[in-house]
């Protein structure tokens, strides 16, 4: 037991880098959250002026929840050659080789991450590369942890070409509650591993499609953090 504790507390020899300069704020908030937070604060203030105490507390609680949902903490990214980092906070629900998929030709190694409403929802690029395709597809709003959600739900797929010429695709998938996918990149742009590229509002899923020879570094049930957790390794 003592040995296990020593391993957990021992410093790692992995170096970390900042994909984007840290912002000088104590509680970073994602930009899409500001209108909702301002509206919630305004409604709370009006209810307080009207001395509607119960509704004021309800509005205050809702505003605090929205602030927490749109939190956007800074993340240092592992500086490990070939490392693929998680594009989302959440729980790994699938890590397996698939024979075909609608986003990349041929077989691919697929890793799916489910985000609940309490996870950070800012999405980050899993690898360095140039965006070759951004494809939005309207669809249903099934629970995002179901297998067929990958194909039937509304989604937005971003494909990049890595410096080694390989293709990596990461797909933002709407869920039962999530009704808004935000993607801030376009074809031709370059992304750095761990760089923010969008978010999905109120619970959802991210699928990552890698070359079939990628070495997986996670297992179903494991919890990961966007931009910080290594989920696989590519051979460049």
Give a verbal description of the structure.
There is one protein chain. This protein is 19% helix and 33% strand. It has 236 residues and is α+β, with helices and mostly antiparallel strands. It folds into two domains: 31-69; 82-233, Glucose Permease (Domain IIA) (Distorted Sandwich), CATH 2.70.70.10. An eight-stranded antiparallel β-sheet has the order 11-7-8-9-13-5-4-15. A three-stranded antiparallel β-sheet has the order 3-16-14, with no helix packed on it. Helix 2 (34-49) runs antiparallel to helix 3. The longest helix is centred in the first third of the chain and has 17 residues, at 53-69. It is globular, with a radius of gyration of 19 Å. 34% of the residues are buried. Residues 1-11 have low confidence and may be disordered.
């Amino acid at each position: 037991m003592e040995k296990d504790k020593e391993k957990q507390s021992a410093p790692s020899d992995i170096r970390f880098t900042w994909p984007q300069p840290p912002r000088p704020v104590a509680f970073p908030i994602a930009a899409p959250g500001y209108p909702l937070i301002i509206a919630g604060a305004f409604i709370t203030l009006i209810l307080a002026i009207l001395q509607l105490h119960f509704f004021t507390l309800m509005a205050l609680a809702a505003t605090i929840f929205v602030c927490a949902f749109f939190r956007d903490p800074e993340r240092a990214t592992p500086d490990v050659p070939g490392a693929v980092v998680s594009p989302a906070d959440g729980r790994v629900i699938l890590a397996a080789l698939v024979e075909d998929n609608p986003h990349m030709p041929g077989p691919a190694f697929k890793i799916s991450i489910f985000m609940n409403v309490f996870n950070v929802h800012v999405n980050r690029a899993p690898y360095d590369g140039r965006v070759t395709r951004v494809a939005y597809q309207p669809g249903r709003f099934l629970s995002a942890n179901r297998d067929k959600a990958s194909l039937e739900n509304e989604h937005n797929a971003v494909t990049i070409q890595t410096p080694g010429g390989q293709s990596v695709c990461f797909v933002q998938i709407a869920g039962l509650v999530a009704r808004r996918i935000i993607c801030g990149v376009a074809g031709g742009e370059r992304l750095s591993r761990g760089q923010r590229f969008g978010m999905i509002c109120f619970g959802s899923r991210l699928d990552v499609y890698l070359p079939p020879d990628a070495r997986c570094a996670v297992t179903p049930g494991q919890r990961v953090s966007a931009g910080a957790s290594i989920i696989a390794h590519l051979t460049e």
